[in-house]
Design brief:
With about 110 residues, the protein is mostly beta strands. The protein has one domain (about 5-100). It has strands spanning about 5-10, 10-20, 30-35, 50-55, 60-65, 70-75, 80-85.
Length: about 110
């Protein structure tokens, strides 16, 4: 299953599947990665390996606004929902560029 990456405030988050069964079996462990796209460094707080592993496939990944700020939510194939622990306060903010600031292809 392909899952589109999501981005928020300089952070891109995406999911991967580590299959545990045969080619005909869609079981496996879902992994969520969340990195600052300016530095490439993981922003996950409780994941020394740079990713969070779940016992089921990740089928939905979304940033939602809460009273505590934005949070990354992962929906799993076993119908459970988890908040992915990450630090969003230290990331850079992006800015819009004027077309004159873009480098030319020449």
């Amino acid at each position: 299953m392909n899952l589109n990456p999501v981005a928020y405030n300089g952070v891109v988050s995406f999911a991967a599947l580590a299959p545990t069964g045969t080619a005909c079996d869609l079981n496996g462990e879902g992994e969520v990665y969340s990195v600052n796209y300016a530095t490439g460094v993981s922003v996950l707080t409780s994941a020394p390996a740079g990713h969070v592993t779940f016992g089921a496939m990740v089928v939905n990944l979304k940033y939602v606004n809460t009273t505590y700020g934005a949070e990354l939510i992962a929906g799993l194939s076993n119908k459970q929902v988890y908040k992915v622990p990450e630090t969003l306060t230290l990331v850079i903010t992006t800015r819009l560029l004027n077309w004159r600031e873009l480098p030319s292809a020449e």
